[in-house]
Specification:
Layout lengths: L51 H5 L29 H10 L1 H4 L3 H35 L22 E14 L24 E11 L2 E6 L11 E2 L1 E3 L7 E12 L12 E19 L19 E2 L2 E10 L6 E6 L2 E6 L11 E7 L4
Amino acid sequence: MSSDGSSPRRVHRTTSQLSLPRPNEGRLSIIVEDGDVPPVPQRPSKSQRRPFSRIFFPVSPPRHSFESPPPRYSLWDVTGPKGEKLAELRNNINNNKHIAGRGGWKRLLLLVLIVIVIIVALAVGLTIGLRNRSNGSSSVPPSSNPTSSPTSDPTGPFPIGSFSLNTCLDSISTNCTSTSATWRCYPYATYADSPSLALATFNWIIAGSENSLTISSTDNPFAINFADVPLTVADKGTANERYLFSVPNNKVVIPSASITTDNSMATCQFNNTQLQASLFTRIPSSYPSNSSASSTGNITGGFQPWPFAIQVSQSINGGVDVPACFEVINGNLGEPITNGLSAKSSQDFCSCVYKNYDL
């Protein structure tokens, strides 16, 4: 109701006349007392260190910027395949009583170094070993006469084994041939000529069992080859007990003098020459007296000296084609040589006798 007693008028306003509320209309007015004027709030001054992203980008910058450093990162925070962290492994190592002791880390490093050295040494050794084996297998070994290789095991009680039969050339007989230059005996000097130059050694192998012994030759300058020839025992149990064998072989001789009219090279063959040997088991040897080869304890090249008396001989009787001689042309046999050669009686014989006792 107004001051004049009339009813108040209602004022109607259209929607267009209404104004939207302003942000500051909801606030109370500041009451000014005693004429004081409130200070006007100042805008903060622009910082010279204002981030570049706040100036040009309307959105928030990345979480990690140069204003705030990234979270701390450590190698020990890496998680293993089973969920464990390397930090736990480090703690376990540090807490190990063997490593935590004085010099534990040094000992650990030393052990690792030793293991590495061993592995490298094994690798180098294996490489060198395989290389040497490859070179050995690729090289062609020297060929040997198959007839001189025994088929039995050469180990066992005496007389089974590998033996060097040290003898000397005791005597030579050339009666089986009309030309004495065609029969020769290695080493071409007798004991009477020179005891030292007459030394001749046979390396033979005895194998088998006590009741079934065999003997075989090895490579030798006599060109005598045989294998698994049966041995027989004679005068068993007596002072003359000995093992015997006999085997035929073809003896090839290069004449000591020319037997051709033009002085060309020649060779002579004495076919079916008999090799005979007696290996005593009780009679002592006497040659060589001043050589270590006579000692039973001295083993050379896998062959031990035969400790008793030995007698070995090569012999052949006279007859047709004894000997059969041929010219040699470029290493091949040529025409037969008959000039100056005539057959001798079968009662005449040629021989080479080797022994190491009763000289």
